[in-house]
Amino acid sequence: MFAYAAMTPSVEFVNGMSIPIIGLGTYDMTDDQSVMSRVLTDAIDVGYRHIDTAYIYQNEEIIGRSLTQ
């Protein structure tokens, strides 16, 4: 992981959980499983820890499969 990934500012919620303020947006991403897997792997490799999804995007399933590979 790159050193700057650890320096990314986070926001802390009242329950004590925190999330980086910079995330990977997944709106209108590919439906190709192999491409999605590569994008997410590369994002995690460079330090992303916040993957932004929403029910309306209808891509949670492909993202979930990609993350479990």
From TrEMBL:
PROSITE patterns: ALDOKETO_REDUCTASE_1. GO terms for molecular function: oxidoreductase activity. Gene3D superfamilies: NADP-dependent oxidoreductase domain. Residues 22-68 form the NADP-dependent oxidoreductase domain. This is NADP-dependent oxidoreductase domain-containing protein.
